[in-house]
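step 4 of 6: structure.
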Amino acid sequence: MFGANLTIPEFLQPLFILKIGLLALIAIFIIFSIIASNQVATMNKSLNQKQTSLLLHIFSILLVLLAISLFLTALVIL
Amino acid sequence: MWNRGSMTDIFVAPKKDPIAAPENKILRNKKILVEEKRGTPLAEQNKNNEPYSFKKRMGFLTSFGVRPYGVSFGEQAEDEEIFLFLRRHVVTNVPWIIAGFFLLILPIFLFLIFDSSPFPFTVPINFLIVFLLFYYLIVITFLFISYITWFFNISLVTDKRVVDLNYSDVIYHNMAVTKLNLIEDINYVQAGFMRSFFDYGDVFIQTAGEKLNFHFLAVPKPARATEIIQNLMGGDKDVWG
């Protein structure tokens, strides 16, 4: 029959679309976390509270690193 | 004969340290107590050698500080000292803490629901892992953003001016400053069960003319804060009153 050998191209596969969507979301999240980290650095200049300010800055950088790690992990295992 | 050279000097009494004075045993004990409690040498805390300076170190959740130690702001002058440090009361953080807790345990409930569901819902395990990790990263970020929004929303009163630092939604921040002598009126409102129970309220500072008005919302001990600002407006720096 005409439609017997019809296969869906890879870019239309639901899982492929899900993978691209997830990667795009994580990429957007990386940008957001970088903005948050920059804002924390800026706010630390406006208000400096010794140890706490330093810890917040470290944590914001950690978030960026986690987001990048997640993106790379998703790229590898999906 | 009157001899100018042998004229005695006018007697100038040496300055007394009010705490060191033998009659001020209570103050001396208080000083030692504070020093022991904080674990920081008082000499290090107090560079100006002012006897009444019981400075307080600010912690992660401190929302009210009188002459706080270890805090500075960007526009601070060298001879400018912070007398009052205000944030929203810690209790105001409860809603986002509860929301964060529910978001953290939500995947467990979802897993239980889908596991017992008669309709099979199949997603490859690698997708599930990445999705779950991403979800928790978003929840942690939500908690972090909520905390820094609280942390960086502060109001300061120095011996020269009032500073209001606003920060919200990661992308917005502004700083408003006015001199103490431009303040015309100051009052506070403390209404409601929660506010009365936890002793927090709103402090309103009205400045001269069409200048900015300052609203310190949900700050702890509003009566005390108002009193301190009034004292500073009158030039009285003894904020321990």
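step 5 of 6: annotate
 - The two ends of chain A are 35 Å apart (CA to CA).
 - Chain A has a mean pLDDT of 88.
step 6 of 6: archive
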